[in-house]
Secreted protein (Wenjunlia tyrosinilytica), 182 residues
Amino acid sequence: MRLPYLLLDIDGVLIPFPDAEEACPATHIRHDVVPGGRTPDASVTIWLNPAHGPMLMGIIRIGLVTPVWCTSWRQDATTLVGPLLGLPPLPYVDLPRPQITTSHPNGYLWKRDYVDGWLGGAPTAWIDDDFTVLDHEWAEERTKRGSPTLLVQPDHRAGLHAEHLDAIEAWARRYMANASAA
Ligand SMILES: [Mg+2]
């Protein structure tokens, strides 16, 4: 039986947006990383919560979803960010690089059209902080057409919490129970 994907965003999910005082949650630790294609003097500062690694490994080990990065970090998610959280090298969606100045150039998340094609009819849970109403409608439509789709949307300043992964685990268990009963 095909497992649902678990699509994982990074910015606003694992790397929170700073608040008005430019502060990050006290749970997070600073790292300076050099994204692919940059010289070492062009490092980028990111803040990560070391607890997120074990949390994500928890849902990965249950084995009900296939985790895939879905982030503008692209390959750097696999080679840079994931290892800082102790995650194994996960596959990533090789998103296009559109010239856009907003996350929602057409009123919905810029990644969505590409992800829609990438998924085909596969069931998926998708964690991203940047969905709009139109994305939630897309997920409902997709589910109605027989491709169960769960969007999980953390607050971009707070990022990922255990309840988000609990919701995904419960959804995946329901999906597997329905799929094996069908
Ligand atoms: Mg994001």
Remarks:
- The chain has a mean pLDDT of 95.
- The chain has one domain: 5-15+50-181.
- Strands lie at 5-8, 29-33, 44-48, 66-69, 124-127, 149-152.
